[in-house]
Amino acid sequence: MKLHGVKVPHKKNTSLCVPEQIPDPGTVTIPMSMHIGKPAAVKVKRGDAVKVGTLIGEANGFISAPVHSSVSGKVLKIDELVMSGGMKVPAVAIESDGLFETDESIAKPDVKDFDSFVEAVKKSGIVGLGGAGFPTFVKLAVKDLSRVEAVVINAAECEPYITSDTRTILDRGEDLLRGIDAIKNYLGVKRFIIGIESNKPEAIAELKKLSAKAGYIEIKVLPPVYPQGGEKVLVYNTVGRIIPKGGLPLDVGVIVINCTTMAEIGSYLETGMPLVNKCVTIDGSAVNTPKNVIAPIGTPLEKLFDYCGGFKEEPSKVLYGGPMMGLAVPSLDMPVLKNTNAVIAMDEKEATPPKTTACINCGACINHCPLRLDPREISRAYKLDSAKDLCALHVDLCMECGCCSYICPANRPLVQTNKLAKSKLRTYLAAQKAEKEGEK
Amino acid sequence: MRNLISSVSPHFYGTRSTKNIMLDVIIALIPAAIASVIIFGLRSLLVIFTCVAVCVVSEWAFEKLCKKEQTISDLSAVVTGMLLAFNLPVTIPLWQASLGSIIAIIVVKLLFGGIGQNFANPAITARIIMMTAFSGTMTNWAAPTAFKLLPDATTSATPLAMMAKGELDQLPTYLDMFLGNRGGCLGETCVLALLLGGVYLLVRRVISWHTPAAFLGTVLLMSLICGKDPLYQLMSGGLMLGAFFMATDYSTTPNTPLGKIIFGVGCGLITVLIRFWGNFPEGVSFSILLMNILTPYISKLTRSKPLIGGAGK
């Protein structure tokens, strides 16, 4: 069986652009929630002096991650920031002194066994850097290690424009290997598979060199079909297993880790410097000189564009992440987040969608859905307000990759309706559950 | 700084549109249109032009009168007009062709909600209504006048009618059948041109192979079983036109591969049933219309199965 997908234009314009460190950003704004789970608790107050790597937000609850300062300087204020999802979170604004002094507490972590390894990853503040931002240590803190048969390293980078994972492979091979090696030693995993799309020949060549050195890493070159890097798709295409609905990769014996996340683990184990800088691809039709830049977390997006020569024309839409699943930002004051792998600025032409017309029942949405859902029927059930039908159509399986909307010749808002339908189904299921419990 | 657009993903859009799909169908129909002029003379062009013009104008007028959004720019009315013309004899009076076009667009398509909503193929339904209403002119087959500018006054039977009557000695050769040098509707006779168009649609991925393969395959198999000449059956009547252009219509046929195969097999079976044992010499139109009616049920039975996993580790 082959999973369906769509062929999107790759636009990997920056794959050969070596990342450049941007100059002092002046002021950074670091939100306490750059991960899935509870926001971190602010540990600093106005006027406090901080350095690079100083803990400014403490993990709060099991699924959470600590947050560190990315510059040295003074805490200006603690604000509330409205994130792209509409959620308000506290954010620490720090005025940089331009010195980038390292916090005294930063030292190579003492890792001897599984527990100390997971603890180190937790302290590093590393979250899933492919975009989702799930705290990495939670993924690694497996209770029964015998369940883990393989670790799949996600280097597919299937979104158009983005090349920051490609740069990780080309520039940070040592870190990547060290991260993999640590997981091999402390989790006792024997099988490592790196999944990468065939449209990155330089990165594949580099990976082959690394795998020859390590000897135990498999490289799986995959066709460049979006969404190759979607967790479910990648797991199926590397180990041939389907993650059950509502389940985790671990349910089929796999842990999936993005390659940049892996390199960050490797680098933390060596230096003890938490995740404070991020390689970000700056591209899009409105950008003058597309580049890869390394920026302190919290840098306002405007500074990144300034470094890339500003705009060719005023941008109409600016995205965190790629054009298929990225989030539109409300303004250029928004900061670089831990899980920001690209910032795309689109001109008016690129940002203007074609007109929506009537559905012609061509079936393209159904025959391109990686998970074989029926977006046309889902839209109908959503309009009819039938949560029961939505349940039977398994809309909760939808990973929101956007293939259906992309391929639709009538440009209907299919994945957008799926998202609404998912939330309708969630409400319905919760109400049903409450009713059942009430009966007891 | 201008306000930034905020919208949910995806922020990229594919290049396919309803209009360029319809344009592809029109391109695919052009070889058969050219063949019809060569085989039946310039009047073919007049019939095609009339049908297309009346289809487009009636869609425009209906939407104007009902104060609905104009959809003639999606070119689907042009496709309907061409397909209807292809299903008429070249000698058809133009007023009858016009009436057929109005029925196809207004009654079969727009009254059911317009593009994507009609349950029956407009061109085929209009042809069947015309067959019942104008049975004389609808079966007045002009003899092929290949490479002559003006059609002869002579008429000839279609090969299927000859076979039904047992006039086997008058049947055209395989080569004549393949090139379309035989009696029949103006756009259905040239197998070569229709295959060219069909292959174009397959290459452009406008249609998938499932429907035509199932349809043609079933006719082939049933002909073998029933002791008829399979090649002759495949090249006769409106089979090629129906299998590639009418049974693949999006609105009126199932949209999953399995659904398409069932649809095609159903069309094939009904076609041979009518051809071999029915009262009419040809059954392609009826088979497609009957299967159109079954489409909602086929779709329900063959709905795409989501990959919920959990079965095999």
Describe the structure concisely for a colleague:
The complex is a heterodimer of chains A (440) and B (313). Chain A has 440 residues and is of the alpha/beta class.
Topology summary:
The complex is a heterodimer of chains A (440) and B (313).
Chain A lengths: L19 E2 L5 E5 L9 E2 L6 E2 L4 E4 L8 E2 L4 E10 L5 E9 L17 H10 L12 H5 L9 E5 L9 H8 L1 H15 L3 E7 L3 H14 L2 E6 L8 H9 L14 E5 H13 L5 E7 L7 E6 L4 H7 L9 E4 L6 E2 L13 E5 L1 H4 L12 H5 L6 H9 L3 H6 L10 H5 L6 H26 L1
Parallel strand pairs in A: 1-14, 9-10, 9-12, 10-11, 13-17
Antiparallel strand pairs in A: 2-8, 3-5, 4-7, 5-6, 7-8, 13-14, 15-16, 15-17
Chain B lengths: L17 H23 L2 H23 L10 H11 L7 H16 L12 H12 L1 H4 L20 H7 L8 H6 L11 H13 L6 H16 L4 H6 L3 H8 L10 H21 L6 H18 L12
Give the tags.
heterodimer, A: 440 residues, alpha/beta, Rossmann fold, six-stranded mixed β-sheet, 14 helices, 17 strands, globular, B: 313 residues, mainly alpha, Ammonium transporter fold, 59% helix, 0% strand
